[in-house]
């Protein structure tokens, strides 16, 4: 599988999805004009990755801000990761949030309550 590597823009996050390392990262701001269009290839990539995942998959989510439509798309990615975990692989989502950003911490906790994948809340000081 090809690695997905997308540079950040003012409206979209940096994306690194590397199947060989079992590493996925979404970092920055996520307020794309069309979130479904931006995230569709990422959701499809995780679907394909689920066919032959690494024994351990680490996911880093380090968002400064994301809009409502991005929120739904991120949940779609998490649902695909949940399927990988159900298949017997280890999956860990590292959810990064700024020390004073209660909203981002809460967003991570909301996702944690929805999907059956272990989350690690990581405070960035």
Summarize it.
With 125 residues, the protein is an alpha/beta fold. Helices cover 39% and strands 34% of the residues. The chain has helices at residues 35-51, 68-86, 102-114; strands spanning 4-6, 14-18, 23-30, 56-66, 90-98, 119-124.
- Distinct helical segment count: 3
Q: Which structural class do you get from the secondary structure elements?
A: alpha/beta
Class, according to the CATH hierarchy? Alpha Beta
N- to C-terminal distance: 35 Å
Write the layout of secondary structure elements.
Elements: E1 4-6, E2 14-18, E3 23-30, H1 35-51, E4 56-66, H2 68-86, E5 90-98, H3 102-114, E6 119-124
Parallel strand pairs: 3-4, 4-5, 5-6
Antiparallel strand pairs: 1-2, 2-3
Structural summary, described in words:
This protein has three helices and six strands, in the order βββαβαβαβ. The protein has one domain: Transcription Regulator spoIIAA. Strands 1-2-3-4-5-6 form a six-stranded mixed β-sheet, covered by helices on one side. The model has no long low-confidence stretch (mean pLDDT 97). 28% of the residues are buried. The longest helix is centred in the middle third of the chain and has 19 residues. The chain is α/β, with parallel strands linked by helices.
Keywords, separated by commas or semicolons:
Transcription Regulator spoIIAA; alpha/beta; 125 residues; 6-stranded mixed β-sheet
